[in-house]
Amino acid sequence: MEVRTNGGVKVPHAEFFPPPPSPRAPSVWARRIAEDRRELVRFWPVVQNMVVQELRVRYQRSLLGFFWSLLNPLLMLATLGFVFAHMMKTVSNYPVFLFAGMVPWSFLNTSLNDSATSIINNEGLIRKIYLPKLIFPLARVLIALVTFVFSMAAMFVLLLAMHARPSWALLFLPVVVALFAGFTLGLSLIIATANTFYRDTGHLISVFLQAWYFVTPILYPTTEFPEGSRWLFRLNPAYYFIEMFQDVLRWGRMPEFGVVAAAAVIAAVSLGVGYAVFKSQEDKMVFRL
Amino acid sequence: MPYSSRRKTRWSSGSDREARTATASQMESPDARPLIELNDVSLRFVNYSDKQHSLKRAVLDLVLRRESVAPKSEFWALRAINLKIHQGERVGIVGGNGAGKSTLLRMLARIYPPSSGRIEIRGNVAPLIEMGAGFNHELSGTDNIVFNGAMLGFSKSQMLARAQGIYEFTGLGEFAALPLKYYSSGMYMRLAFAIATEVHPDILLIDEALGVGDAAFLEKAKVRLRGLVERSKVVIIVSHDLGSLREFCNRGLWIQHGQLLADGPINDVIDQYLARTTAQAASA
Question: Could A48 and B109 be called an inter-chain contact, meaning their C-beta atoms sit closer than 8 Å?
């Protein structure tokens, strides 16, 4: 009992569903990437529309409109900054330190949680019309990114009011944001894939993110820990990104080259793995909705 | 197992010959290659019931080193379909309920990837399969026109230029700024139909009779649909309305249990199909 596939190679069909995974030849991936780039250009207006729509619908007919998305992190930060400032006597200007870590983290948090359900929630679209599935997690990450950038802007206003002076290191901020967005997108692709096949993933993720948040030096500086055990933080991939944000935003200095390089490598690996995982399962997704 | 028998799918040789003669007669035309080519295409659905396909199960299977015992029912929606469709062909697909007609359309629209075999499509495809996909109920009519247009491959400015025509056709101009959730279902269908038919495709896929609005609109819709059919290079229609298939199409396909039973001039195929169904009805 055999089914003929592309190359005319006969394979027992029972083991393969959809088309057998293509050999990991680089040419296959080169072709996939080229094709995806073409499709992303073609469907870019769809992504744009999704992002704009989501942001508009979210704040439609609410009095403060977009300010809600700024108010929320600001209130959160103000409260935490006030409460923890008394405990964290070692860090001068603790609220700024807190802001520098928390705002990027909430971007990661939102992106991962939202993209987990991005495929499932768009079942109606996926089953009715052809769209490259990559655009669903991508749109979720972009929506989170826009909110992130706006929160960042609001944060600067607040910092200026607190007599913080901008430094030249801020010019490096776009690079940090870009690296962090790449890292986040890669993770989002993995989670979007996993959650489509195993619906438990979505619940696991929120628990996991909570734990991850506390082991990442966001609420506290690493200097709170004895010299000998600080290397443990370096096992946490998010550490490098948060470190860069804190360097640029809190300390007003360029991050160390080693940290930037590590972050770039981590972002690249995350993107690569995320893309490979997503693409290899993309065809099966429509059957698991 | 019945479907593994390759004999049954050998029907294709006949249509190949037809296709070849058709090609020979159109030798002068620069693009004689078929716009749609299906080689031995099969599609299998596997039903995993939700409970069985969970992370817990996967982990247990892994830990206990057992083969996945989750019983899964599989179902071949399409089996070894071979098909070539050339420019100018108007294909009508007939067959009973659940025969795989709509699945075939969805596969041509790239919604379902084939489990095996190869599909080649040359040209852009416009599916009129389920209209109103991706309508956002919170947004206004015009916003939805732009968004749907984007999915069909139009830029925002192109779509805004067409919006006027869409409103004239549907008579929904005064509701342009109203969120879609306040539309009546008739208005909704009309808008969806107008957007979906605003395209200039190479390949047009139509599923079933399109129930759109009141009688007056239905008449307008038919005219519009006919225009769309005329400017498409290839049209594939799935319908139970055999009369309009005879009228619209010049080639027929009969699908039964995911297999192609007949392929030929539309009237022959429909006659065969009718003969079989009436024979079955008589014997029953």
Answer: no
Which residues does chain A have within 8 Å of residue B116's beta carbon, measured at their own beta carbons? 3-5, 13, 16, 19
Closest residue in chain A to residue B179, using alpha carbons only = A57
Quote the tokens at residue A47: 């992504």
CA distance B40 to chain A (A): 7
Number of domains in chain B: 1
Rounded distance, CA B247 to CA B252, Å? 12
CA distance A247 to chain B (A): 40
Q: Are B240 and B208 in contact (CB under 8 A)?
A: yes
Strand duo A10-12 + A2-4: pairing: antiparallel
CATH number of the domain within which B256 lies? 3.40.50.300
Return the residue of B nearest to A51 by Cα: B147
Asked whether A218 and A98 are in contact (CB, 8 A), the reply is yes
Q: Which residues contact B173 (CB under 8 A, 6 or more apart)?
A: B167
Locate the chain A residue with the closest alpha carbon to B55.
Answer: A198
Q: Shortest CB distance from A198 goes to which of B54, B117, B136?
A: B54
Residue B157, domain member (yes or no): no
Contact A18 B111 (CB under 8 A): no
CA B231 – CA A154 distance, rounded (Å): 53
Assigned domain for B76 exists: yes
> Which residue has tokens 């495809």?
B125
CA distance B137 to chain A (A): 10
Q: Which residues pair with B75 in a beta bridge?
A: B45
Question: Residue A11's closest chain B neighbor by CA?
Answer: B116
Mutation for testing the B interface, residue in A126, A191, A287 having most B CBs under 10 Å = A287
**What is the rounded distance in angstroms from the CA atom of residue B281 to the CA atom of residue B215?**
33
Q: Which amino acid is at A216?
A: T
Q: Where are the alpha helices (DSSP H) in chain A?
A: 26-59, 67-85, 94-116, 118-121, 123-126, 135-161, 173-197, 200-215, 237-246, 257-285
**Domain map of chain A by residue range?**
44-288
Show pLDDT as tens, one digit a residue, over chain B (284 residues).
343 333 333 333 334 444 444 444 444 455 578 889 998 899 988 776 555 556 677 777 777 776 655 556 778 889 889 989 999 899 999 988 888 888 899 899 888 999 888 898 888 888 888 777 778 888 888 988 988 888 888 888 888 888 888 998 888 888 988 988 899 888 888 888 888 888 888 888 888 755 555 677 778 888 888 888 888 889 998 888 888 888 888 999 999 888 888 898 999 999 999 998 888 888 76
Burial class (CB in 10 A: 0-12, 13-18, 19+), A85: middle
Interface touch A53/B143, C-beta < 8 Å: yes
Distance, CA of A11 to CA of B124 (rounded, Å): 32
Residue B215 lies in a domain: no
d(CA B82, CA B9): 8
Answer whether B230 touches A (CB < 8 Å).
no
ipTM exceeding 0.90? no
Q: Is A130 on the interface with B (CB under 8 A)?
A: yes
